């Protein structure tokens, strides 16, 4: 018996296992439950085993024990055969066997994967009858089922009924609340947790990030460090995601260095998070260096880099990477094509994008979805191909919900505003207002009317918006200063240095009056009621975020921050920019163009970068970036 079992343990493939099985049968141990369970355990291995062999062996056993049944259930579960897993459980009940605390966690996990809450409720009844809720593994599996199905009330009832809870119980509940967007209850549970290990901390940090509470997520990340807990890959990924959305590159760089200090291996997932952070913070050079240094990549990593190239206006290299990706047998997915269509939008590659869209299904087997149609409308609209854009919207009408169709109409409306197509913009806005009550359509149409000095029409749209009770949420911006993230809301005047900010703005405005730069009218300022400082040949919005940056620089701080503000009306240019400084004009060595809604102000003149699909420019203290096209069109 011992010798036979040793043979099983030494097996490295199914051929050796079948030989060992034959010897076990020869020795008369073919029906020995322990020997059979060891053979089935090997057969259930996803890498080495054979599920068919395990199934045949199981079917030949006249009276399988609960141990053998559990092994078969586990084998099906590991091979993702969830229905078969449940069928074995039903067979156990039919032959009068009693499931144990090993059986139920397996079938509960299968139900979780199937998102079958009703089936889980039946198992819950069996658990109560068997008195197994006191078992920590069964209880945690049941909580995981309910949270996975979004049934948080049922999960909380089970959690409260459990006589013993471990850190896994608390982690599952915190993660469950966070996934449902209930970050308040997640925080309450975190505070109440008697023991907070790295799993509990990781759950709350991830929860904050999932719910767009990026500052809070980074704050909890710092607190976790102070607890001297081991930081795992998942925690670093969440922290880097927060840095990416806040534009907190200084913190992201510190995390990158810290990873090197603790010698945590940079796997594909963690490296992808670093690449994404650098891309969204505008440092494509470091992002590409990391990407090209990877020994192994997956489709997620490739999609991140494709999207990074796209939003930085490098459509040519995005198409090159896509070609290499297909050549290396990576299969594109939905996200891949969204990234490629974004590249077409920001690089003006409408014909290439349209060809790719038409070949999505035939060449790559990807059926276009609403998001793809919306992207196509966007890149067609950007180059003024409005007839083709309208045809795409017509095609998607029958396959999209009203909210999904609204995405395409919004893209068309935005393009109409950029090209001054007032009649089509009116049609798009009216259709968009029918489909959804979002403020975007009203704002864009009013801005368009204001740009062409149709102020009566602009006021009519604003009144319509007010009468219909449509509100626009105030804009929110973040800026990183010496590793600390500052948050501003539109029209907010509560910052402790607001007086200095306003004082410097006035000084900057006075100096700009003598500038030779003449941007277009900033229509968005008219809509929002932002104070517009202007002279005969220069205009600048009173933007608190810009001024805070400048104030900090003038007081001697070194900063590399992302400033969120609108510069609507600047002409789009691929040829670079001029900087209009407070006192003089100077050139920028290198600028990659994407759009004109975002700038980076820095005391380092030698850097220029793009971020999140917007123009980002590294320039000197107290300078204003102006499109060269504006100068050429006005003074050529």
Automatic annotation (TrEMBL):
Extent of the PPR repeats: 135-169, 197-231, 298-332
Keyword tRNA processing recorded: no
A molecular-function term among this protein's GO annotations: RNA binding
A family per Pfam: PPR
Protein name in the entry: Pentatricopeptide repeat-containing protein
PANTHER family per UniProt: PENTATRICOPEPTIDE REPEAT-CONTAINING PROTEIN (PTHR47926), REPEAT-CONTAINING PROTEIN, PUTATIVE-RELATED (PTHR47926:SF352)
Keywords for this protein: Repeat
Biological process per Gene Ontology, one example term: RNA modification
Species of the source: Stephania japonica
NCBIfam families membership: PPR
